Amino acid sequence: MTTLAERAAAAAGRATDAPSGPSDDASSTPVTPYVPAPDPMADYEPGDGDPEMVPVHIAWLRVRRDVRAIAKKEQYNGGGTRFNFRGVDTVVNTFGPVTLRHGISVFPVDVDAEHRDTTSAKGSKMRECTVTVSWMVMGPKGDTLPILPKTRGEALDSADKGTAKAQSVALRVLLLTGGLTPTHDTDPDTSYVERGEAPVRSAVQYLDEISHPQTSAGRLRQIHYELRQSNQLRALVTNEVGDEEQIGDMVVRIGKERAGGDQ
């Protein structure tokens, strides 16, 4: 009967002269010491143009510092809609050289895509794609951000490019959001038009509306209220039959006539 140590030695291909009986001498079993794998970056020294070996969060902060801002210089103008935006190519062309300089790499590690058939406003058949992408942001030392950020992108295409377009949009969202990248455009709240008082309508300006047969009883009551607010109920006007009449009385009279006619 062999001991556990003897069976382990035999499995490892090591010969042993230890007796087959039980033994309490642990020193008789050879033990292979554990040797950790060598660190591939242990003797690395950055060369000319190589990034500084800093943690990923420091490298990403340096990327943000160098990018600073991306303005909305591209414009969409079609279908009666016009707006400025920051396109995918503009964002990638800005971040690409900066991330390379600081040793930042961005990898999609999981892509969840959904598709559906739809049509354009002109009736053309289109394929809509919505993707949710998980990203890994790696620094120059090989370490990564502790959280895998997720971004979503949507795209329409008439052929087979919808998924690629949607992933490009998701990448743009990651870079702009993770980089907190401002536009440096003028804030719309910096300019405003102060609203003034609405001009008061004169009594004469109400005549056509009061006399019109389509003016409802509710609107006549509103006109009477507006005239009272502007102190014009006693203003004399020429009514629908050519007589002078206080406009307040005219509104009440016509309102009663139309209410009676509706009964």
Blueprint of the fold:
Blueprint lengths: L3 H8 L44 H12 L6 E5 L2 E5 L2 H14 L3 E15 L5 E14 L11 E8 L4 H17 L28 H5 L5 H13 L6 E3 L5 E3 H15 L2
Helix pairs in contact: 2-3, 3-4, 6-7
Summary keywords:
single chain, alpha+beta, Enolase-like, domain 1, two-stranded antiparallel ribbon, elongated
| CATH C-level label of the domain at 56-178 | Alpha Beta
Which strand-content bin applies to the residues?
Answer: 15-25%
Question: How many extended strands?
Answer: 7
CATH-defined topology of the domain at 56-178 = Enolase-like, domain 1
If helices are DSSP runs of H or I spanning 4 or more residues, what is the number of helices?
7
The helicity comes to 25-40%
Give the ordered list of helices and strands. HHEEHEEEHHHEEH
Secondary structure class reads: alpha+beta
Structure description:
This protein has 263 residues and is an alpha+beta fold. Among the domains are: 56-178, Enolase-like, domain 1 (2-Layer Sandwich); 203-257, no CATH class. Helices cover 32% and strands 20% of the residues. The chain contains seven helices and seven strands. It has helices at 4-11, 56-67, 88-101, 162-178, 207-211, 217-229, 247-261, and strands at 74-78, 81-85, 105-119, 125-138, 150-157, 236-238, 244-246. The N and C termini lie far apart (116 Å).
